Amino acid sequence: MGGIAALAKSLGYKVTGSDRNVYPPMSTQLTQLGIELTEGYDLSQFTPEPDIVVIGNAMARGNPAVEYVLDRNLPYISGPQWLLEHLLKDRWVMAIAGTHGKTSTTSMLAWIMEDAGLAPGFLIGGVPENFGISARIGKSPFFVIEADEYDSAFFDKRSKFVHYRPRTLVLNNLEFDHADIFENLDAIKRQFHHCVRTVPSNGLVLAQAAEPNIESVLEMGCWSDKQYAGKAKKAEWQTNPVKSDCSVFDVLHHHKVVGQVSWSLIGEHNMHNALMAIAAAHHGGVTINDAIIALSTFKNVKRRMEIKGVVKGITVYDDFAHHPTAIQTTLNGLRNKIGNQKIIAVLEPRSNTMRMGVHKNELSQSWQLADEVHLLEPKQLAWSMDEIVENSEAPVSVYQTVDGIVDTLANSLNAGDHVLIMSNGGFDSIHAKLLTRLENS
């Protein structure tokens, strides 16, 4: 929604907005754009009366702002529908879908297109360091967008990406998530199928090979060209790591090495994301060599293994991981980079799916590469954390407050330790609190 607000501002609209909890980096970006923010849902923000209200999918009936809009019959629309009508309908949309890696892959593709001189528009659910902003209109037909499967609004339960009508569609992976809106995995597959249905026959669906859930989506019907990326033999696009941390890897096209990426990122997941971005850019006319050159200068997205500070030899990272698979791959990438140095994982299981306990059995297995784990127990948790503590091989401590975690870590960390903090929210500014304590200790 912050990115949509930025795009609307660029189109010349006067934009204001509200949210319950506005925090950086998005709050900073919006303020810099001159977009007025309201903390909470004060109804005075509707004076003067707006021409249209774009309602985010986190808003539900009972919200005072929503009720005000409905009671007064104000024009309203979902964010994805607004995007389609005002920006996407005449563009070559390049959409990145999947349970994991959407933000990173979208950022990589946008940077490849930019470095190739194509000046794409983009909308990304994060702030890519190469651009410093999460959205822009662009100066070419190309528009790169993070294609989220979450629902569009309380009045439109279709996935957001159904509105985007991509010409290039990347299907990175597919697992069960968003248990608050999807009954089961098949319900998510159906939405992915609906997105595939919108790709024109002269478009491209780029899918991860050897991914059974993606394959079953395509078996429901696909009317476009298909290409595969990954380890399976049928994949037109493949990679081969040259270094174990995947900071250097070969790119293969039709089983022939066509170039080598050497970049600042680590992890097998990022290597795969890069391959998808290269293949998608190739569909848009960028040569493989130019894409590889662009990735050598790619800077990761904020909150993706972002180093927040190094104090007294202790490195503190911020990462958006909140699903067991993402937690495991993030830890794997860090472990391959630092070897036997100590990793302290700090996790806030705050997503609706986590709170419901859907992934609780997988959670204790996801952090086994960490030397120790510190968990913040969310309020209104539908299950007990005691069971995952018992099932974990790595030592786990559970806390009721962020300050409790900071107190423990400040008194136990040593030079050479790596603190990996993972959450899809603000985590009560734990990174800044920890770094300050370390500096003052």
UniProtKB/TrEMBL annotation:
InterPro entries: Mpl, Mur-like_cat_sf, Mur_ligase_C, Mur_ligase_C_dom_sf, Mur_ligase_cen, Mur_ligase_N, MurCDEF_pg_biosynth
Matching Gene3D superfamilies: Mur ligase, C-terminal domain (3.90.190.20), Mur-like, catalytic domain (3.40.1190.10), NAD(P)-binding Rossmann-like Domain (3.40.50.720)
Statement: the UniProt record of this protein carries the keyword Transport: no
UniProt keywords, alphabetically: ATP-binding, Cell cycle, Cell division, Cell shape, Cell wall biogenesis/degradation, Ligase, Magnesium, Nucleotide-binding, Peptidoglycan synthesis
Residue ranges occupied by any Mur ligase C-terminal domain in the UniProt entry: 303-425
Top-level taxon: Bacteria
EC number annotated for this UniProt entry: 6.3.2.45
Pfam families from the UniProt entry: Mur_ligase, Mur_ligase_C, Mur_ligase_M
Domain named Mur ligase N-terminal catalytic: residues: 1-87
Catalytic activity: UDP-N-acetyl-alpha-D-muramate + L-alanyl-gamma-D-glutamyl-meso-2,6-diaminopimelate + ATP = UDP-N-acetyl-alpha-D-muramoyl-L-alanyl-gamma-D-glutamyl-meso-2,6-diaminopimelate + ADP + phosphate + H(+)
Record-given protein name: UDP-N-acetylmuramate--L-alanyl-gamma-D-glutamyl-meso-2,6-diaminoheptandioate ligase
